[in-house]
Amino acid sequence: MRIAIYGTGGAGGYFGARLAAAGEDVVFLARGEHLRAIRERGLRLTTPVDDVTIHPAAAFDDPSQAGTVDAILFGVKTWQLADAARAAIPMLGPDTFAVPLQNGVDAPAVLAAELGAARVLGGTCGTISRVTEPGVITSLGTVNFMKFGELDDRPSARTEALREVLKRAGIQARIPSSIHTAMWEKFLFVVSMGGVGAVSRAPVGVTRAMPGTRAMLEASMSEIHDVGRAHGIALPDDAVERAMALIDGLEFDGTTSMQRDIEAGRRSELEAWNGAVVRLGRECGVATPVNAFCYASLLPQERRARGEWTGFQD
């Protein structure tokens, strides 16, 4: 299977390196110094158990140079997804399909609007990986997985084929009975951790330990659970308890990508995380006060990072 990794960041870089190391035909889409380093020295993946370098690596910044592929794994930020999907059109063959790896629930619809619904799977992933220097992906955890499925949850040859490819690469791959439920379960977990972590400027080891921020985590999750249920998502009754158990098992200094982006003054995925909870809550009449607080508190800095507000003074 020929696979494109569109966005060779933490998640895309981790899964792409694993696939390439297992002998799959992988093309990487990257930019700037990261792209130059990959071309010159290869893509290096360091983990707690091994160190892998893909060299030479087929790396491009222009999708039209990559040729057609069987599957595209989109690892870009949520706010980059529509542009990336349009740029990816030259890579499409008759049966090419797309899998979003973003933490959010709107990604399949964004891809479908650009590529056509028939090409799009639902998807989510888990990995504690990030770009630590140009050409280098560092993975801190030992749990790395992908979940994906047809948007109507029917069995298909392409989802089975992708699962087998991932399994051969040593990646935990699962086709859940409901991909939408799986995406919302991840959404519930990561959005709460990201929002509370970003407003408190504290790692998860602190936010789960202090009574006030722990209560915020649980309340944020409960709001997302209620919003999902109101939108017809079959979230389990114990989704919040299960997500809190995951929170309690994380490394003390764990943070989300959104929190790290906000702390660094970069544009973040705030709109697709806490902002989406607020928007979707309004659509179905479910109150989301904790997520609304996180969103409103972080929005001024987010708008500054996007260059939309010049009222700040350095």
Describe this structure in words.
Helix content is 45%, strand content 19%. The protein is an alpha/beta fold. The protein is globular, with a radius of gyration of 19 Å. It folds into two domains: 2-177, Rossmann fold (3-Layer(aba) Sandwich); 181-305, N-(1-d-carboxylethyl)-l-norvaline Dehydrogenase, domain 2. It is built from twelve helices and twelve strands. The strands form three sheets. A five-stranded parallel beta sheet has the order 5-2-1-6-7, with helices on both faces. A four-stranded mixed beta sheet has the order 4-3-10-9. It has a three-stranded mixed beta sheet with strand order 8-11-12, sandwiched between helices. A hairpin with a 4-residue loop joins β3 (43-46) and β4 (51-54).
Name the helix and strand elements from N-terminus to C-terminus, one letter apiece: EHEHEEEEHEHEEEEHEHHHHHHH
Strand content bin: 15-25%
Number of helices: 12
How is the biggest beta sheet arranged? 5 strands, parallel
Rough shape? globular
Q: Could you give me the name of the CATH homologous superfamily of the largest domain? A: NAD(P)-binding Rossmann-like Domain
Looking at the structure, the CATH topology of the largest domain is Rossmann fold
Rg calc: 19 Å
Count the E strands: 12
- CATH-level-2 architecture of the largest domain: 3-Layer(aba) Sandwich
Distance between the termini: 50 Å
Low-confidence stretches: none
In the CATH scheme, the class of the largest domain would be Alpha Beta
Mean pLDDT rating: 96
Share in helix: 40-55%
Tally of individual domains? 2
Helix/strand structural class: alpha/beta
Task: Walk across the major sheet and give the strand order.
Answer: 5-2-1-6-7
